[in-house]
Design a protein that fits this description.
Blueprint (H helix, E strand, L loop, with lengths): L16 H19 L1 H8 L59 E28 L11 H4 L10 E32 L5 E11 L2 E11 L9 E3 L4 E11 H6 L3 H9 L3
Parallel strand pairs: 1-5
Antiparallel strand pairs: 1-2, 2-3, 3-4, 4-6
């Protein structure tokens, strides 16, 4: 009898090499998709300073919406014969302050806020309820037929509850901003108020500082120097931030942000 020896297959030292490689590539692809355009933008700017945004008309932005505010009833202008004074005028000469769409004015931002708040709350509550039926037309003797024999008709219910709650919080915040931004009138409301929008970008090395301001102002709040203070702006939207290498280090990674959102604890 002849025996045929079947060659023994030597097991590979890395049986899971290709599946692990495929899994690694899949994770890289998923990570790139989760990061979206921000990752692609950052990769395209490797070794270069952040690019400044172009100067565009804010009313042409995709998310721009004209401001709609409550308007007073229209007033009919009264003419004064043989008078050099015009109703609504602030001077006999032409006003050099911003008054039309496209005019420029300066917004002064001087914020020096400091807030300190401490709050302590303590709450305690105690309740006790007792109820019994010592005599009920002689039927109290029948309770033992339905309820356990140890039942006491004079003490059927006895409920006690206690609750205690205490909390404390402390807030200490300091904010200081002192700068000036040129803004443009983008809309004139029917009552004469102006909608303004200003944006400023400053690049220092590889960091871009962005300042944005928007809101509604009155014509009377514009000074003779064609400036307006930030506290005179209604519906003010003031943003001061940046983007670049320093901001990237200060901002947590998107993985940490996702975990902070998803984790319930």
């Amino acid at each position: 009898m002849t025996f045929i020896k079947t060659p023994t297959r030597v097991p590979s030292r890395h049986p899971n090499k290709f599946p692990r490689l495929a899994m690694t590539l899949s994770l890289i692809c998923v990570t790139a998709l989760l990061s979206g355009c921000n990752t692609m933008r950052r990769l395209s700017e490797v070794g270069e300073a952040p690019k400044l945004s172009g100067i565009n008309n804010p009313t042409q932005s995709p998310g721009y919406r004209p401001v709609s505010m409550p308007m007073p009833a229209p007033q009919v202008a009264e003419s004064n014969p043989n008078s050099l004074w015009r109703t609504g005028a602030r001077s006999f000469f032409k006003d050099q302050r911003a008054s039309q769409v496209g005019d420029i004015l300066t917004v002064s931002i001087a914020i020096d806020d400091k807030a300190q708040l401490a709050n302590t709350t303590a709450r305690t509550r105690k309740n006790s309820e007792d109820m019994g039926i010592p005599s009920l037309l002689g039927l109290e003797s029948q309770f033992t037929k339905v309820l356990p024999e140890t039942i006491d008709p004079s003490n059927l219910f006895n409920i006690d509850s206690n609750s205690s709650n205490s909390g404390g919080g402390t807030l200490d915040r300091t904010e200081t901003i002192d700068l000036k931004v040129a803004a443009i009138i983008v809309q004139v409301l029917p009552n004469g108020n102006y909608v303004i929008h200003g944006r400023q970008e400053i690049r220092v090395n590889a960091e871009v500082r962005e300042v944005q301001v928007a809101g509604v102002i009155r014509a009377a709040d514009i000074t003779s120097a064609n400036t307006v203070s930030y506290d005179k702006i209604a519906e003010a939207r003031i943003s001061y931030g940046g983007r670049g290498t320093i901001s990237d280090v200060q901002q947590p990674r998107y993985g940490s942000e996702i975990m902070d959102i998803l984790l319930p604890f």
